[in-house]
Structure formats: C-alpha cells, structure tokens
User: What shape does this take?
Amino acid sequence: MLLAIDCGNTNTVFSIWDGREFLCTLRTSTHHSRTADAYFTWYATLVKHYGIEAEITDVVISSTVPRVVFNLRVFADRFFGCRPLVVGKPDCLLPFPPRVDEGTQVGPDRLVNTAGAFDRHGGDLIVVDFGTATTFDVVAHDGAYVGGVISPGVNLSLEALHLAAAALPHVDISKPQKVIGTNTVECIQSGVFWGYVGLVREVCERIRGEYGAPMKIVGTGGLAPLFQQSAQLFDIFEDDLTMHGLTVIHRYNKENGSQ
Ligand SMILES: Nc1ncnc2c1ncn2[C@@H]1O[C@H](COP(=O)(O)OP(=O)(O)OP(=O)(O)O)[C@@H](O)[C@H]1O
Ligand SMILES: CC(C)(CO)[C@@H](O)C(=O)NCCC(=O)O
Ligand SMILES: [K+]
Assistant: This one.
C-alpha cells in the first residue's frame, strides 16, 4: 500500500491509498524539528485507533518545506524499509513537465494539484487551492503546469491584521451575514471573506482572458467549501485533489521505471 504525504507550510497530511480508495487521512502541524520516531509514534497511534491494517510498501512525498523532507525520508526508510518518491526531485518523473521560466522551482503541491486535476478533468483548468497561500495553477490542454498566481492565504491575512494592528483581535473566517460590519469582528470577517471572493473572481476572469480558451475552475483546500457554498466560485470542488495527485504521480513513476 501507498502512504501519501502532503506537507504544507501549515499542516502535514498523511493518507493511506490501497489502490482503490484512501483508508484514512491523518493531519498534524508542520514542524521541521519533528523526528522520524515522532512521526511514527503519531502515525501508529492513529492507525491503531482507526483499526487499519496497512502494509506500507511505498511512500510518496510532496513538501513545500524543504527541511522536513530529511526526517520523512528517515521515517520511510526506518519503519517501512522504502525509499520515498519526492515530488520535485530530479528522479521523480512528472507526467507533463512544467513550462515556466528557466530556473523557476514550482511548488511541489502545485505540480501535484496539476497532475490530480488533469487526471480527473482533462486540461484547460484553473486549480484554486486555499492553503497557507491561495494559489491558482493553470493546467494547459496537454496537462502541463504553465504558470499561475500566488496570493496570501485567508488565515494568513487574518493573522497579519491581528499581528500588525494593536486593536484588531484574531478572528476566524466565516461568511458574514452582511457586508457592512457593525463591530470589529464583523468588519474583519467582511473584509477578508468578500475580499477573497472578489480576488478569486477577478484573478480567474483575467486568467481566462489571457489564456484565450474556455477553462474550468477547480477549487480545493480546507476553506474552499466555505467559499463555494456562498459564492459559487468554482465549476468543480475536490476535497482530496492533492492526495489524488500524489497517487497519480506515484503510479506514473512505477509505470515509467523511476521507482
Ligand atoms: N470554516 C473554517 N474556518 C477556519 N478554518 C477552516 C475551516 N474549514 C477548514 N479550515 C481549516 O482549513 C485547514 C485545511 O486546509 P488545507 O489543508 O487546505 O491547508 P492548510 O493546511 O491550512 O495549508 P497548507 O496545506 O499550506 O499547510 C485546516 O487547518 C482547517 O482548520
Ligand atoms: C506557494 C506555496 C507556498 C503554496 O503552498 C508553494 O507552492 C510554494 O512554496 N511554491 C514555490 C513557488 C512557486 O510555486 O512558484
Ligand atoms: K494544501
């Protein structure tokens, strides 16, 4: 079985793929100081709790934080006796290499989202991922990542207001009932919620204009449902796009000889 690991700047997610479905999804915060033994203690406890019997034979990793990869490699080697496939490393083949400026390192999560979205929906897509950053990935007709947009994430914007302005509290995102807030919390929620609705609409409209062919918008990430239920920003919503993309890239490498 395959253990797929998606390491973002905020959270790290492990999912076990049995070839047909994900058996479980485990989430922890991302810390480069977490050791291989600490990962295993956490992982083994949860797998036991859910009653899952999984013989892990393969590990695939996407990490936007380079420093955590070392301990995850040790984890894979020590506990599953395998050498993980790490997206973005030269020995990890991609179904469609990105077409970007020379020397540009595309975030592995964006390459993985591209592969997952193309596998499910074909090309000519905008993938919007609401993570630490809100990213827009343009997936060309042939499935290649050909560029995109990076904006500060929703929670990052809320946190930035709190950190920079003495009188502004930390606020959790939610859909405000109205636009004109009558207290500080409502004012912040309105600014960030409706601001992001506008940001996503404007960016997608401009990408479509520049791209010059019809495109579908795929939304993913923890906050995508909140925006989708109240603003219909996407044509398609996917709750496991990054995990699916990891299985696609893993399968591609198995079939094409790198693993
Ligand atoms: N209604 C909500 N309000 C606040 N946070 C939410 C809500 N729904 C989901 N979340 C948060 O979304 C996060 C999951 O998002 P996701 O995994 O896409 O990105 P992330 O983990 O924040 O970022 P990254 O992948 O860059 O580390 C979780 O931390 C979860 O707490
Ligand atoms: C933009 C983030 C932080 C989103 O997770 C990640 O994809 C990343 O670190 N990217 C590197 C730069 C790029 O993708 O162009
Ligand atoms: K993510």
Q: What stands out?
A: The chain is about 40% helix and 20% strand. Strands lie at 2-7, 11-17, 22-29, 58-63, 85-86, 125-130, 133-139, 145-152, 216-220, 236-237. The mean pLDDT is 97. The helical segments are 36-49, 69-80, 108-121, 154-164, 184-211, 224-231, 241-255.
